[in-house]
Structure of Metallophosphoesterase:
Amino acid sequence: MASSVSAHSGHDHSSASNVKDLPRVVIQESDTVNPWTGLDLNNDPSNFQFAIITDNTTGGREGVLEDAFCKLNWLQPEFVMSVGDLIQGYTTDRKQLEYEWDEFEGFVEKLEMPFFYVAGNHDYTNPVMAEVWKERYGASYYSFVYHDVFCLVLNSNDEARPHAMTQEQVDWAVAEIEKHPDPRWTMVFIHTPLWDRNDPTGKWPQIEEALQGRDFTVFAGHHHRYVKHSRKGKEFFTLATTGGNSGLRGPRFGEFDHVVWVTMTDEGPILANLILEGIWDENVRDEEVRQVQSALIDDGSLALQPILFREGRFDRGQLAFRFTNDSDYPVDFEMQFKQLENVVIKGKRSGSWRLPPNEVLTLDFDVANASDDFSEGIAAEMQWKLAFDRDGEAIRFEDSESLSVVRELPIRTEADFLVDGDLKEWGSLSYRSPEVADWHYHRRWEGEKDSRFEFDVAEDGENLLVAVKVFDDSLALSEEDALWAQDSVGVLIDARPQRVRGSNKADRRPLFFNIAPGPNGDTRARGAGSYPEGSTYVARKTALGYALEISVPFAYLDEQGGGDWDGIRLNVTLNDKDLEKDAVARIFWKPSWNRDDAVPGAGSFYRVERE
């Protein structure tokens, strides 16, 4: 057996050892029958096992990664791979980066086998992060060969910005592939699944083209949701999490903490997903299951629509629950309502049904307010189960949906807005950040004296407009840091049909503006090139903080809504970074829509008829 490692820096290291043929079983056999099935043991010395850990970021949950490393020592793989996003990162604070890498290396040091680093966007996305990586680990892309298996490790952020590859790396990777023309197998490890997103650089197709004509498998992370892709007969795996942010709704949703156990054979790698709650094979969630899940659940077919009211106090309303089987399979559906103390629900509150393809289940309920203290919020919970049979394999989902009662807010009808960051034509703004803030990541918000915001929403007959005024005692603005890692505002605008925008599905991302005034008087916007055509935005510093305006044309809203738009759902987030602190406080007007305590439909606005 021989192994070698090569990096783009040009350094090669190699070692070799002998592997002796293992003896056959020594056992007394009978001439008739024996209490075993055979004696050809599965012990080919050229086969090997290794493990892969995946994302630990976006507020990594304490204890999960440590637990995974402990269990890897129990399992004893020959080595452990990663697919990046190993630290929270995303900062130019060298001290903070050193602290996070020291912490991570403390976990790695407990492993009883080699660990291979892969750079994720949280690890390697600005010049300071890249510099710290190079000082600690050297190459950010490299290759190695083990038992005639060629492993190619790539950096999907090597321009020190997310999801980008330099041509220099691509040329190196193609050369490495050509240098190993006939391996037993090729495995590629990369953080961002560039094949499953818009890749404006066109770099990934060059690498995929160079891999054609050989057996290969690709592993990635980043999306925090597992899915197996098949492309031109090859398998591409996007892994879930090993402690990273996740809805944790279970295997069929692709949301779970796991390590991947890979056994290399002559026929290719065999995968087992070792979930902390059990073991699943590589087909835990494939593209077809993802498509069915999206059609039946995530696109709003299964969501309980919020009961919206506009004036006064909520007294009573109607819930019309519609579940459409948009799959090609008969679906078994069960549900049971759990009524909360705030309301009284009249109607069929539990049952089970079998729905053929294209059939619609309709249930109607009367909902009445039963509490003097209840104004809006979660009114009831529906526990549900859904199952279908796919070629003898039972595919099951189960989750819960919240029934909410939400006040729908009017969109102001105004004219002659100038999107310039000067909010004088708005007058007083109608909405403000909560006094008790909902936040995640680091709890560093010290109340309204630290930072707060006001905002409003209007339309001028051609555009939807949003104005935000931020009051901040200490502005931290930087050209190098990611916008969400410094003082900035995020505005989420969802103009899809009410049945979709009223739900809280984390993987359905609406239009998102992340904007801040630049330190030099300009406006910085995250993902500016992806905003709808005709959108405008301006942010500028003020005496007490900063202000911003956003304009989105009706054409985009109509396209999202499938016709004349009738309303939106909106949320505003304030990212507050104080100069003397390492972390960012994230303050939401309404709880983040992908949190468990988020109220479905919260932040709904309706379009007022113009006279």
In short: Residues 1-20 have pLDDT under 50 and may be disordered.
